[in-house]
Amino acid sequence: MLQTPTGSCLVAFVSLRGDANWDTEYAEHAAALQELISRQPGFIDMTSVRDPATRYGITLAVFTDEASARAWKLVAEHRLAQEFGREHGYADYRVIVTEVQRCYGP
Predict the structure, then answer these.
(1) CATH class belonging to 9-99
(2) Which of 2, 13, 56, 76 lies 20 to 30 A from 49 at CA?
(3) pTM given for the model
(4) Residue ranges per domain, the chain?
(5) Average pLDDT value over all residues in the chain
């Protein structure tokens, strides 16, 4: 379950893949970024889901604060992946950054 402490920074990446044939290459990029983000200072947790039928997906990443999230945005390998995605993979996407006000479950 996604860890989302009150006051943490939640970054939501909502995307629509444009090319269904990009799945294998996308998986390779995603695995490399998941390893990289796990070592990023201030990183807390991340989860991703994608509907293969519609190609819509969402990735939620949680950081201790907005400064940590901004630092992740500037990591060279992440920037290269962003550029590749914009040029070759995504028909549309949105990045939403917000502070967690509360999080609860059962």
Answers:
(1) alpha beta
(2) 76
(3) 0.89
(4) 9-99
(5) 91
